[in-house]
Amino acid sequence: MPVTVFASRLNEQIANEFAAHQQYVACAVYYEGQTLPQLAGFFYRQALEERGHAMMMIQYLLDTGAEVTTPGIIAPRTTFADAVEPVGLALSQEREVSQQINALAATARDEGDFAAEQFVQWFIAEQIEEVATMSDLMTVAERSRDRVAEIEDFLAREHPGQDGPDAGAPRQAGGQ
Prior knowledge:
Strand content: under 5%
CATH topology: Ferritin
Structural class: mainly alpha
């Protein structure tokens, strides 16, 4: 099967999702080291979500008979000036991923690949949610920069733990 532009770009996005996973782990580890368990838990969950996105993309490529490449990634940032900085990094990352996903949708549309375009729609909706979540957290973090316990309280109240699986989400490689 010839490699399509969409498949090539989706492989690139898999690398981006794994890089986001690693960056979120690094943020979680930073917060864990600062004894901020709510922030650590939130970012560990975000890391798993990003890994899940990569695995969904891998499964799509497998299902469509496209080649899957296992990407290498650059090392994540691991040091931060304060508790607000990782949230700002995460917000920037989510905004960038939104642009990348939109570009994937445009590529699918340009190629007339309706299955690929439909596949990407779930990620577009997911990115709206992700940017909104990080924007809210950033607002709270900036407002509470000198009172980090208030950020912890916000997360405990508004993001107490992992939601159940999204029944409409694409299937992940590895049967998860």
